[in-house]
Design brief:
Rossmann fold, alpha/beta, 12 strands, elongated, six-stranded parallel sheet, single chain
């Protein structure tokens, strides 16, 4: 009999993308379970595009009206799930799963809300001892074990597999946007969506200029991407680069986060802070260069991208720097490391 699973990761886009390895693990089990995810509306398009998801339920959020909360509870009750897997636990979701009568409820053993789960996995994530996506896979393993299903092999990148011809098409579109026939396509995303500290625009400009002048093996085409309300920031970075004789253009505007993600599949590298686009790039298994603060709960290990290790670069403030002081990042060293990587690409 097919097991019906409800998986919850209802916070930021980057957090949801780091759930994809766990979702891939669940869908590789035999017999294959039916996987539904509970996500907020702004990550729903990505959830619908995820090859490891069968169905999407939209979470109205903690600020929704009591009526909306009752509708959600009724919807989950009606689905008759066999198990609930909460990758990041909150009291509202813990209480929701218990009231919905889901017999098996799995979550990290953290906070008082754990009393509503009957399988609690001690992880101590705040110590940042391993990547977030590995913590998620651990929870999926615990669920599979409790369902008495044979443990499947661990999945490996890419967690968002695309056909070669689809990637080639997206690359062609990006090359056309910069009026080129070949060369490296590097996307820089200077925004953070308010979820993570990031380099300043001056730091990004310095980084791009140095890479541009160090890398001589093939031409580099720079594309600057922006999230909602971040287009002025992207335009300012383009202006700063133009003052230093480096041409950059806007990453093609797309009408949905899914379309943005698919277009990103045509790039050779994404440079960004630890935010949604960086983790989308990780799932697509394109090269990433991520910038992280010194904060222990936000380290480069904890929020590591889930692409192949050979495609992953990361840079942090020194451990002695204040948690949110990204000015302590060594831009000169990062530029050299990224340039060396590109020379071997």
């Amino acid at each position: 009999m097919v097991q019906k699973l409800l998986v919850v990761r209802n916070d930021k886009i980057g957090d949801f993308m780091l759930a994809w390895p766990a979702l891939a693990y669940l869908k590789s089990a035999s017999p294959t379970p039916h996987v539904t995810v509970l996500v907020p509306a702004y990550t729903a398009p990505l959830a619908a595009a995820c090859p490891w998801v069968d169905e999407v339920i939209i979470d109205p959020g903690s600020s929704a009206t009591p009526l909306a909360q009752r509708v959600l509870l009724k919807q989950i009750k009606a689905a008759r799930f066999d198990a609930l897997l909460t990758l990041f636990s909150t009291p509202r979701i813990a209480w929701l799963g218990w009231r919905a009568g889901i017999r098996l409820r799995v979550a990290p053993a953290t906070k008082w809300a754990q009393i509503f789960y009957n399988v609690r996995v001690r992880q101590r994530r705040s110590r940042s001892a391993k990547p977030e996506y590995q913590y998620n896979v651990e929870l999926a393993c615990a669920l599979i074990n409790k369902l008495s299903i044979p443990q499947p092999p661990m999945p490996f990148p890419p967690y968002w597999p695309l056909e070669t011809r689809q990637r080639e098409y997206q690359r062609k579109v990006l090359l056309e946007s910069v009026q080129a026939n070949d060369g490296l396509l590097i996307v820089v995303h200077p925004g953070s969506g308010g979820s993570a500290v990031n380099l300043s625009l001056d730091q990004y400009a310095d980084l791009v200029v140095q890479i541009h002048h160090i890398s001589k093996t093939q031409p580099i085409h720079w594309l600057i991407s922006a999230g909602p309300n971040e287009h002025p920031q992207a335009q300012e970075l383009i202006r700063l680069l133009a003052k230093k004789s480096v041409v950059a253009t806007h990453f093609p505007t797309r009408n949905s986060v899914e379309a943005y993600a698919l277009q990103l599949a045509g790039a050779d590298m994404l440079i960004a802070g630890s935010t949604g686009p960086l983790h989308i790039a990780g799932c697509l298994n394109i090269a990433t260069a991520g910038f992280y603060p010194a904060k222990r709960s936000a380290t480069s290990l904890r929020w590591q991208t889930c692409n192949s290790a050979k495609k992953r670069l990361y840079f942090s403030s020194s451990s002695s720097a204040p948690e949110k002081n990204m000015l302590a990042v060594d831009i000169d060293s990062a530029a050299k490391d990224i340039s060396l990587f590109l020379s071997k690409y």
